[in-house]
Amino acid sequence: MSRKPLQLSPDITTMIRLDHSHVFRAFHRYHLASPWWRKRAIVGSVCSALEIHAQLEEEIFYPALARVAPDNETLRESGPQHDELRETIRKLRSMGPDNAAFDGLFMQLMRETIHHVADEETGLLPIAERSLKHELRSLGSAMTRRRMELLSERPGRIALDTAGTFPVATAVLAGIVLFGAGKLLTQWRSLDRYGA
After folding, report:
1. pLDDT tens digits, residue range 41-57?
2. Which residues are CB-contacts of 120 (< 8 A; sequence separation ≥ 6)?
3. What distance in Å separates the CA atoms of residue 122 and residue 58, rounded to the nearest whole number?
4. Closest by alpha carbon to 84, among 66, 64, 110?
5. How many CB atoms within 10 Å of residue 187?
6. What angle is formed at CA 118 by the lines to CA 116 and CA 119, rounded to 5 degrees?
């Protein structure tokens, strides 16, 4: 039973593109006039997503790609680009939205990320789709398993930042969960009442 969800996991290149899309949607929610708590949530969400994404690529995607494209220049530059992103993230995490440098530093992170994503999507992902086509699904499963482990290390912070970044989607999801829980509770009460 634990294997079935992993078999349904998207392939690794799809997951990488979904990660990129998620970060860009969060970037677009950041506005200079946003309240401090919203800025903090968006930056926290983006930083966590980028940290997890980079770690997943370094542990799973890049080693697989290095087997089939060991001399690829873009692949060689990807690790140092991740290090630059991590340094910018470290600086952002050390300050708050009230710091005059905060907005500019977040824009720098956005520029660095856009550059890195462009390199991956135009260079590395097509190579992977050609050269690793029979492994993409199993690599995606490995990435899903590892992502769950990394997310479990800080679930509260990630949930709060996601709620602050995507409040409407969070409210809709919470409403669906509460509606479903209410339905289940009603069914359980009916079963108790009639002794079933």
Report:
1. 999 999 999 999 999 99
2. 16, 20, 74, 78
3. 18
4. 110
5. 10
6. 65
Are 162 and 43 within 8 A, CB to CB?
A: no
d(CA 110, CA 30): 11
CA distance 33 to 159: 23
Q: At what angle do helices 136-152 and 36-56 cross, to 10 degrees?
A: 130
- DSSP assignment letter at 32: T
Query: C-alpha 12: how far from its chain's center?
Result: 13
User: For 8, what's the count of Cα atoms within 13 Å in the CB-facing half-sphere?
Assistant: 5
Q: What CA–CA distance (Å, rounded) separates 55 from 50?
A: 8
User: Can you state the angle between helices 36-56 and 102-119, rounded to 10 degrees?
Assistant: 30
pTM over 0.90: no
Is residue 4 predicted with pLDDT exceeding 50?
A: no
Q: How confident is the model at residue 178 (pLDDT cuts 50, 70, 90)?
A: low
Q: Which pair of structure tokens corresponds to residue 168? A: 């409407």
Of 36, 15, 39, the closest CA to residue 120 belongs to 15
The band of 81, judged by pLDDT with boundaries at 50, 70 and 90, is very high
16 CB-near residues (< 8 Å, 6+ apart)? 53, 57, 61, 120, 125
